[in-house]
Amino acid sequence: MDTEQNRSKNYNRIKIITGITHAVLMLLTVTFYVYTGFSKTVYSAASGISENGFISFFIFSLLSMAGISLLFLPLNFYSSYMLEHRFGLSNQTLTVWIKENLKGSAVGLLFGVPVLSAFYYILNTYGELWWFPFAVFMFLFSVVLSQIVPVYILPLFYKLTPVEDADLIESVKRMGKEAGLSIVNVFSFDMSKNTRKANAAFTGLGRSKRILLGDNLLNNFTPEEIETVLAHEFGHYKYKHITKNIITGTVFSFLQLFLISLFYSFLSQKAGSGNIMYAPDLPLIITAGMIISALFTPAGNYISRKYEYEADEYAVKATGKPDDFITALKKLTGRNLGDENPHPFVEWYFYSHPSTLKRGEAVKKLLL
User: What is the distance between the alpha carbons of residues 15 and 75, in angstroms, rounded to a whole number?
Assistant: First the structure.
């Protein structure tokens, strides 16, 4: 195994270990927070600030989230800053890292306020059946976010510039027409300001639909390679993966929230109150959510990998450039320090995309 393969293996191994550590510690912290009665103390302090039920709940939520964020700050700093610099992937200075995280926290708070408000109202209005109207609300909220984020939120973190390469635009228009899209907005974003990684994405719904190309991709890949990457993104649209993901995501969301509601009720009873509307017990929803979500992860990733294979096939057939596509996959894996051949269990559970090795093999089979 060469040095580069060793680096990617080590990087991904540490990322997985760090992610699992974070999840386990979060699970234990939230559970400990409630079962020790510490959450009651924090809620009493919040109630002392205001007697209004909603305001007390909101202050309690902010204090709880702020405390947990501070507690996990060292681990987050290691995973998002130190580790990325250790493996030569990050271009961020410490000052920029702090600014970006503060900006992200502000955006999170902006969107968190309506979610918390809706949750409080729904829980107190519908009681044990809270999961259903909340699932409906989250579906509608996600649709709104899909319209807002590409246009208004992403520019807060990256500079978006319309791609002016005439040949690339012509290629995009041609492939878009073949995939059933008459108009596509194509933007470059300054990914290189933070990382040496490369990426491309198809975001938004309706009029906010746009293709986003990282400048690292545009500057380090050949036109043919970029064309195959774009064709892959169009493949997702051609095979209606976006619509299918919305449907399956909605079904999963409703089912998960139903199971979370049952598990939360059980945990609340074990905590002593047995009252799902008792604010100091509400952090246990995070405990329930993490466990239920972990159980659904393999199914979601299986579906995602299936769609990736289909988009790969479309990219190869639409461009007729299998070699360029395979080369692009390998270059993306190399720049992102991806593991091109992970352990089968790791790929099954954690990977939303098939490994580069399997994707390459699938493309070669198409040529037989």
Answer: 11
Is a pLDDT exceeding 60 seen at residue 99? yes
Flag the least confident range among 59-63, 185-189, 339-343. Answer: 185-189
CB 196 within 8 A of CB 216: yes
- In order, the DSSP letters of 14-81 are HHHHHHHHHHHHHHHHHHHHHHTSHHHHHHHHHHHH---HHHHHHHHHHHHHHHHHHHTHHHHHIIII
Burial annotation 320-359 (CB, 10 A radius, 16+ → b, else e): ebbebbbbbbbbbbbbbbbbbebeeeebeebbebbbbbbb
> Which residues have a Cβ under 8 Å from the Cβ of 131 and sit 6 or more positions away?
254, 257, 258, 260, 261
Q: 232 near 319, Cβ under 8 Å? A: no
Structure tokens given for 189? 């974003």
Report how far residue 170's alpha carbon sits from residue 227's, in angstroms, rounded to the nearest whole number. 11
What single letter denotes the amino acid at residue 287? T
pLDDT digits (tens, 9 = 90+) for 327-351: 999 999 999 999 999 999 999 999 9
Those residues with Cβ within 8 angstroms of residue 268's Cβ, 6 or more apart along the chain or in another chain: 274, 275, 276, 278, 281, 284
